[in-house]
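S.,

Sequence below, as promised.
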Amino acid sequence: MLAIETGLVTLFADATLTAAVGGRVYRDPAPEGVAHPVLVFQVRRLKVDTLDSPGHSDNGYFDVTATVKIIDQSEDQSAAAAAFDRVGTLLMGNTLAVSGYVVMGVQRGSEFSYPEYENGRTYQHVGGEFRILVQPQ
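The prediction came back faster than expected:
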């Protein structure tokens, strides 16, 4: 669903978040050799359901799970955690706009944090899932 990915990229262009990750926002894996920190996201579990409640069209809605992760090359996860907190603030702040759709709601899901060790470097991964419900306009 390209529209929701475009909406997320636009939302993640927030000045505070851009400063935290140096403007490095990628769908799926970041390019090899890119500087850190980076924000990586993936949209998955897309399905269409119908709504039986009054006031909704018969077009149904899309139930999307977006996984968002900050990866930082650091011994400490505090910078990655602060950037991910900003992601949560943006997504839960009712500011996500998806062209051609009405955003019905965003729910915060599970969160994770873990270190990764590669070639003598430590990378901190801090992220989580967000459930996003959208309905065609």
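The beta strands are 25-27, 38-49, 61-73, 101-118, 121-136.

Coffee later?
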